[in-house]
Specification:
alpha+beta; 113 residues; Alpha-Beta Plaits; 28% strand
């Protein structure tokens, strides 16, 4: 499993509840279409954590990089329902940071012994 990690803050005046609702609509749509396996949203607790990572952390799970690329291709088209849902989320965030992680050890790249 590969995890696409996103850290962000909300733009000034954005509602955290609206952000959560819009994110759920967007990522549920991607999951139902088969472009992602799953997702979760977490919020920094008690202000603990590096400030540069932002208050929110979104984890998007994909089987492999082929699935991630297919998902990116759909979003990059900027058309239809995917674009509408993406814009509703993206318009509420700032200070984006991203990373890509994989389960380790995994069957492709070896096992720790």
């Amino acid at each position: 499993m590969n995890s696409y990690e996103i850290w962000c803050n909300l733009v000034q005046g954005a509602s955290d509840q609206e952000f959560c609702r819009d994110l759920k609509g967007y990522l549920d749509h991607l999951q139902e279409a088969g472009w992602i396996v799953g997702w979760r949203l977490r919020r920094r607790k008690l202000g603990l954590g590096p400030a540069e990572l932002g208050e929110f952390n979104i984890t998007i799970e994909v089987r492999n990089l082929v699935q991630l690329e297919a998902c990116f291709d759909q979003v990059a088209r900027r058309t239809g329902e995917v674009d509408r849902l993406h814009r509703a989320v993206y318009s509420k965030v700032r200070d984006l940071r991203t990373a890509l992680y994989r389960d380790y050890p995994d069957p492709v790249f070896g096992r720790s012994e």
